[in-house]
Amino acid sequence: MKIERLHHIAIICSDYERSKSFYTHILGFHIEQEVYRKERQSYKLDLSLNGQYLIELFSFPHPPARLTRPEATGLRHLAFAVKDVEAAVKFLNLNNIQPEPVRIDEFTDRKFTFFSDPDNLPIEIYEL
């Protein structure tokens, strides 16, 4: 098998409108397609960033909560590259999102920090 690239990440949210706003207005994703699937009582929102399709955001009635974070089996976090972590932190703070203190990667000497989406999914921003 030869994997060519990441196709998408699927995320189930508890409050569709709140998460849709977060991923589009805060993180800057572009809506490619939004579909309501009546038989599942579920929205499916296809999101891209800089022209690359990356996230499928789903709503389902009464999804179970994530039990622990981030050191549990399964997906640990999403990581996005930014040019300036400090500027990104300022933007997050202006939008009432409190990231963790900025850290330095001990192997690359690059800045990074974590914050959470509306359902407490850990998100990392990592300076290029």
From TrEMBL:
<dbReference type="GO" id="GO:0046872">
    <property type="term" value="F:metal ion binding"/>
</dbReference>
<dbReference type="InterPro" id="IPR037478">
    <property type="entry name" value="YwkD-like_dom"/>
</dbReference>
<dbReference type="Pfam" id="PF00903">
    <property type="entry name" value="Glyoxalase"/>
</dbReference>
<keyword id="KW-0479">Metal-binding</keyword>
<protein>
    <submittedName>
        <fullName>VOC family protein</fullName>
    </submittedName>
</protein>
<dbReference type="InterPro" id="IPR051332">
    <property type="entry name" value="Fosfomycin_Res_Enzymes"/>
</dbReference>
<dbReference type="InterPro" id="IPR004360">
    <property type="entry name" value="Glyas_Fos-R_dOase_dom"/>
</dbReference>
<dbReference type="InterPro" id="IPR029068">
    <property type="entry name" value="Glyas_Bleomycin-R_OHBP_Dase"/>
</dbReference>
<feature type="domain" description="VOC">
    <location>
        <begin position="5"/>
        <end position="128"/>
    </location>
</feature>
<dbReference type="InterPro" id="IPR037523">
    <property type="entry name" value="VOC_core"/>
</dbReference>
